[in-house]
Amino acid sequence: MLTSAANASERPLRVLCCSGSLEGGGSERQLWQLTSQLDRKQFAPSVYLLYRRGHYLEKLADDVDVTAFWTEYEESRRYWPGQIRGLQIHHLSQVLRAQRIDVVYDRTFHMTLITARACRRAGIPRVSTIVSPPSSDFQHSRERFRFLKRRILASAYRDPSCVTIAVSEEVADDAAAFYRLNRSQIKVLCNPVDIEALRAAANQPINIDSKQESAAVNADMRIAVVGRLTHEKGQRLAIEALQLAQPMCSRTLHLDIIGDGPDRVQLEQLATQLGVRRQISFHGFLPNPYPWIKRSHLLCIPSKYEGLPNVALEAMCLGTAVVATNCSGSLRALIGNNERGKLVPLGDATSLAREFALASQSENNERTSQELATAWVEQHHALSNWLTSMQRILCARASAGR
Fold this sequence. Notes:
Helix content is 43%, strand content 16%. The radius of gyration is 22 Å and the shape is globular. The model is unreliable at 3-8 (pLDDT under 50). The chain has a 7-stranded parallel sheet, sandwiched between helices. Strands 10-9-8-11-12-13 form a 6-stranded parallel sheet, sandwiched between helices. It contains 16 helices and 13 strands. The chain is α/β, with parallel strands linked by helices.
């Protein structure tokens, strides 16, 4: 049984979960999972967003109130540098006081830049999660004034009223070095998978909207790539590998690229230039990509860097083999010594193509490796374990802040 500050106050703890939006990313999904699954006898969750939009917005429980910054401010007007963030901090601090929030939870450094100062003003304790190695994620971001923001984040994660969580040991080590933090103060809490809900969603039928998507369903060998279409996610590498792999295969390969983003036009042009456009379906963002993942022979993660990608855990849970670039210590630990998947050198299209070809030659697609991967996720990444740990952390942080 959890020791709860709610018992002392005879009311549930008011937890404000903060995100930029509730689009279909892994961080947004886990924020939604937290608000949905928190024990209502102990917690009263609400949500704070910058933009009131996203796939998970309509999935929130009826008792979860949503406040959004840009519904109260005019987005089209001109602001001087730094003014928007100042207004966001001011607005959030007002929300914290008005709603009598006991503890704040945020994911991603973008929100921590806002929540840290707002919580300090309002005297509210905070739990912040670092989802990717900052030496890659923050350092390669398009944030202006990065030097200043790095100092702000270091102070935010070092704040004694904050509990800092990392999604893996590698992310924690990287964050400690990058922000010069005491490593022992960073808790590691691995990303969860709602196994039952995931498998139920994966059993839904695939909607066929075009002849090209029909070809994807009927292809001899399907490879899924899931993620936002941005430079760091590396879809370009997967397209190049497809072109290199096809001459090595007797089976027809088809790439399902699921996700949307600023690189879509360039990726479609690349596929045309390489002569593989007909072997690729660009599906855009799908609210439920899991039927495609389940029916794929491979899930490919061609990223330049990652934390602990949720899609790898989800594919393993569904029994789909994973091949990934060696872009993350978290992925290396998850895959093991090629026991639960395959790793290829970073940026190496030839090696990735070779793995595509090897997978196409295997009728059983290395079932033993997939079974080991599924068992690993069930043992180490169950949602119930993550939720129990999160509830304890939130209760302890709120109690310490009283």
